[in-house]
Amino acid sequence: MFTQKAALVARDEAFDASARHGALLAAAEDEMHPIPDDQLRLIFTCCHPALAPEAAVALTLRTLGGLTTPEIARAFLVPEPTLAQRLVRAKKKIREAGIAYEVPGPERLAARLDAVLRVLYLVFNEGYAASSGEALVRQELCAEAIRLARVLAGLLPGEPEAQGLLALMLLTDARRPAREAPVGELVRLEDQDRGLWDASRIAEGSALVEAALRVGRVGPYQLQAAIAAVHDEAPVAAETDWPQILGLYGILARVAPSPVVDLNRAVALAQVSGPEAGLAAVDALSADPALAEYRFLHATRADFLRRLGRWGEAADAYERALALAPNGPERAFLERRVAEVRSRGVS
User: Fold this and answer.
1) pLDDT in tens, 258-283
2) How does residue 90 score in pLDDT terms, banded at 50, 70 and 90?
3) Under a CB-based contact definition with an 8 Å cutoff, are residues 278 and 267 in contact?
4) Partner of 145 for a Cys bridge, out of 40, 123, 165, 206, CB 3.0 to 4.6 A?
5) 295-307 vs 259-273: helix crossing angle, rounded to 10
């Protein structure tokens, strides 16, 4: 069981067409290169250490990851014009500094690994929870991110974060068959038919994260994979080990602090200590400008208010989330919630 793992953790438009073609051709011609996949070679090429990490990741997502500027902006929790300016500045630096785009040799992979991992992570996230459009899941992005993460994990078998990222993707993607109703409606984790989850992916992902954690260099992808494994190991939602998840989020907040981690920790806190505690944590986060336009903050707050029977406030919060949700199935779910709590408020 995953309790042992938690104990272990607690113990411790960027390129022009010719440039892209040239990079791909060079990679294809070098059959002895240590990166055995053309697309992964290009991602390592784009994640140049001379660029700021955020800019390199954004540029790679825009050029190779299949994501639009608005989708990348939502992933980075920044306004679209801010993200667009980052891309412009990165392209300008490439031109003015004469940065050479070439596939890095084996000795230079480590300097680019963090950026490459984040690219794959964000591509998978956009695939599993599409930020816009009428599809809840973009399966082609999920599949490609998992494929590339598998190649990367095979290339770096001693790198626990590469193993952790693959584990996280597998453990999350295992739930995909139950995430949509037959008519395309969003099904929340607690309401999913766990008999539809992919047991083979859960087994593989759990084994990977256990092995990664034993290395002793704990990182954010391993911790997120550990949290996903705790969810996946619960036979029913009511048996989820929320205290363990809360503890893992506490560690994650120290290893890789971010407002999104804090929001997810608030969800776990509400499961352990009740919705009032969760609401207080979310309200404390509401002052963070990075989360002001983050639809999941407002939806989470609305859920806590609903559970507390504060119907009018819950409806207002759901409507705020709805105004920020460009994804069709998400909007339909939020519209049903608004109607539900509004009706409860007048009954």
Assistant:
1) 999 999 999 999 999 999 999 999 99
2) confident
3) yes
4) 123
5) 10
pTM comes to 0.87
Alpha-carbon distance of 31 to 254, in angstroms, equals 41
Q: Is the pLDDT of residue 31 over 90?
A: no
336/318 Cα distance (integer angstroms): 10
Query: Cβ–Cβ contacts within 10 Å for residue 101, how many?
Result: 16
156 by DSSP, 3-state: which?
Answer: coil
Cα–Cα distances in angstroms (integers) from residue 180 to residues 63, 75, 173, 238, 333, in the given order: 30, 22, 12, 20, 11
Predicted local confidence at residue 209, as pLDDT? 97
Closest by CA to 87, choosing from 98, 72, 102, 100, is: 72
CA distance 237 to 251: 23
Identify residue 174 by its one-letter amino acid code: A
Confidence of residue 336 (pLDDT cuts 50, 70, 90): very high
Query: Cα–Cα distance between 283 and 140 in angstroms, integer?
Result: 36
Question: Torsions phi, psi of 173, nearest 5?
Answer: -65, -25
Which residues lie closer than 8 Å to 150 by C-beta, 6 or more apart? Answer: 166
pLDDT surpassing 50 at residue 150 = yes
Annotated domain spans of the chain:
258-347
- Using alpha carbons, select from 323, 315, 265, 269 the residue that is nearest to residue 294: 323
The larger pLDDT score, comparing residue 17 to residue 38, is at 38
CATH fold of the domain at 258-347: 1.25.40
Across 43-66, average pLDDT: 86
Structure tokens belonging to residue 1: 């069981």
- C-alpha span between 49 and 37 (Å, rounded): 21
Task: Please state, in angstroms and as integers, the Cα–Cα distance from residue 187 to each residue in 45, 177, 181, 296, following that order.
Answer: 38, 10, 6, 15
